[in-house]
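Supplementary notes for students who missed Thursday's class. We covered one full example, reproduced here. Read the sequence, then the structure, then the short commentary at the end.
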Amino acid sequence: MHRSPKARAPFQEPGSKRHVWLPIALFSLFSLFGLAFPAVNTYAYYLPQTDSAPFVTATQPAHQAVNIPPNTALAVTFSEPVSLANGAITLTCSQSGQVLLTASGEPETFALTLSAAGDCLGTAFAHLNSDDPPDMITSDHYRTPRTIDTTALDIVINEVDAITTNSGHELIELYDGGSGHTPLDGLQLAFYNGATDTLYTNYVLNGYQTDADGYFLISSDSAVADLLMARGALLDGPAAVALYAAPGGALPINSPPIVDGLLDAIVYGNGQAADAGLLPLLEANEPQVDEDSRGQATADSNQRCPNGSGGQRRTGTYRQNTPTPGVPNDCATDAAPEVITVEPIAGTEVQPADVALSVTFSEPVTLSPGALKLECDTNGSIPLTVSGGPITYTATPQQTPDWGAACAATVVAQYVSDVDTTDPPDIMVNNRVWTFAVAPKIATHMLINEVDSDTPGQDMAEFIELYDGGDGHTDLSGLVVVLFNGGNDKSYRAIDLDGQATDADGYFVIGNKALNERNLTLPDAGVQNGPDAVAIYAGGTADFPNGTPVTTNNLVDAMVYGSTQDAGLKVLLESGQDPADENGRGDAEIHSNQRCPNGTGGQRKTETFKPNLPTPGSVNVCTSDDAPRVTGTTPANGAQNVALDIELVVEFSEPVQTKSDWGYPELHRQRVACCSG
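Structure (token representation):
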């Protein structure tokens, strides 16, 4: 039966006990019904007055208990088995008032469900019935436990600085979202060691609260600490800091990671691989935080960006920046300067004169002395003169690298700092090293010594002879022979000489296959008859695709030939030089153009080229024959009063053979004289 409630009075607990456990998980019911805890929850258990036994012998939580965690099971102990009438249990909270509950299960265990919505959860037990008279407890029974402040349940670990220069500024910052003055009773921090994956120290936060802005600092720096911790208490990592709702006392040392009562956690390190043993403290797939991500671990802290964001047990929004204890996190980002492009391009081959370093950075930077270095295997360290900036710098060698040298260039990270004031990071994280090669020494002294472009028949004995001055075995790598057409002053053939060399006497012959003296085969009729040109360049065939205009860039030697002038080709020659004429003696098919004496005249000069019998791969013979000429006569030209019987004398420049009619028939006497003097 039911009776009217009587005035509430404190309960005096007799000795005999029976228990009815009410396993109500506050946090679970809140989640189930979408309810929110108030700032402070006070629960009153109302037990309507009955006539005599049964009576309440004990309650859990105890009367006036504080910091009750949200998953605590509620229990009331009776002196004997009881039954509960519908509506006998009521819930009263300090902020939401009374809410009806429904009980099920008997005689000792009851499950409670909400029969009306509410914004808090607590229990009050009243109107308890038993099977036999006396039927009801003699008076209402109530207790007033107090839960952990619900705002504290939303607190996050907002910033952690574990790696500092002297362990004197380590800190952990808690943040309540800006509510301010949130009691931290019932909470504690636990520190885990990644080496053993066990708890090594903890701090109980009873009696503390956040400041007016919602921050609370645990630090080894007494100037900022709300709770002072020992220097070096935070390990550099891998390690973890976890926040618990754990009012029952300090969590046990050497425990493996605990998830019961876990509110928030951060697992961190300084570049190491993720610690699988600590990651269960986080939500699935959340990363370990790297305090050294910007290369400034001792200057940075791990902080949520934006301030307070990301959610409990989630680490995706942690960023590294200058520590901000007790104030909003400074989430301005600044990446360390990086090298974007370099010259010479890594892996390429360059001419010695082209070895000038060019480095472009990702942002304006300042270079300290020693920031750029150049070392070549045959030269050693080469001093540099640095110019330019602040984004692109040029470093010119003060010494020309050797031909064929292997070189390495370095941007030394510690001497490169950015210009902006958002620091750290201020300097480059890693050195940038790249390598390149200096081209082997090019035989820039080579001459075009002989060219035969017009040969008998179908031009099957053509050749081009190169000469090194007699050095012998000269490496021709890095050179290319280019043939130019006088019809359009563009190239029509290029012949790469990489891997080729002159013979022991210094000759190298490019010729048709019928020519036994050839070193490299030239297609039949491969050299045009003129007006055309042959040139040697420092370069390769890729530099001279067919149709390349005449150029003097990297030109070593050239020979323009033909019987007529070609202004477009003459630019290949030194000023005042004319084309060599293979038909200069009237027999182009049996003559070649060759330097006479052998190897003379100089590069890009044609004045010593003479037509003569071909001498591929050997010394130019340079024989020549001029027409005989009259060098003197008797009597002299214009003489007067000459005797009628005078002997006529004709002197020639060389021995001659006269024909019968070589002179005038009316002359009755004649004599041939040679070579006066």
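Commentary. DSSP finds three helices and 44 strands in the chain. The longest strand covers residues 97-104. If anything here is unclear, bring it to office hours.
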